[in-house]
Request: fold
Amino acid sequence: MGKGASLSNGLVKKIVLSYTYVAIWIFLSFTVIVYNKYILDRKLYGWPFPISLTMIHMTFCSSLAFLLVRVFKVVEPVSLSRNVYLTCILPIGALYSVSLWLSNSAYIYLSVSFIQMLKALMPVAVYTIGILFKKDSFKNSTMGNMLAISVGVAIAAYGEAKYDSWGVLLQLLAVLFEATRLVMIQILLTSKGISLNPITSLYYVAPSCLVFLSIPWIFVELPVLRENSSFQFDFAIFGTNSLCAFALNLAVFLLVGKTSALTMNVAGVVKDWLLIAFSWSVIKDTVTPVNLIGYGLAFLGVAYYNHQKLQAMKAKEAQKKAQQADEEAGRLLTERESDGSPDGKKGDSQS
Reply:
């Protein structure tokens, strides 16, 4: 009875912790999205410089990660060779910087709710790029599901009251670069057996993002910022915004590390609905019935895709357990045969 109770308590504790990680990630992701929208939107805070904002985030994350790794030694740095850094970290950092730049730029032109609807295309992009890089195999059922998601997003876009082609292009490119980054992480880091915790990930990736972002910043935003000499850096606004961005980066790795990437995908759908509701009720963005019908169709497609992934993970886990059981049985049989008798006992030696 006591053993059953302890197992039950352990399971309850695990479930509570999982939901806690999900809630923390949803809250931080929600906060960063709304905060970035507030800063970048010309009608709100009115500072439409997405590259500069992303560079502030990366500077803050790089500095804090350096202090935690090198000064306070909270975690040990992972030993990376020059070849691994050049072939793995730099490409991932480049893709991450472009993805952040483009996604933040989209907030200048599009509503929060519509951006979340466009982000529903992420599974489509990841699956397509996975096929191109031969990390996924083509399946008619899965591609049909991807097509349903795409049609749903297209309907949502058709019903968007404040449609902006440039903003849509920026967000779609952001999805493309982010999907490529996720596939590259799977290919480059996992193939080399490299495991980075949240802090070491920022320690290595954030500085490379900062370097890559500085190139377009010099040509695109620096001249405009120089002309706008009246601007004064608001440490309260940008400091708290950067702190939220840093916390979100940690929460992403915490959620995936303690649960799974699938859990994060499912939580992302919940977060998107919350953001759409918030955008409509608080920010007063226009959300049309056609918007909701289109996103509802995309939502069903994403939910079914996550269901398929869950079933595949269960099947793979069952196959792994069966293989381990077979190996264990084979090992025991080999040991018994090596004993030299059918019952597994060594025969008496005769002199």
Notes: The radius of gyration is 25 Å. The chain has a mean pLDDT of 85.
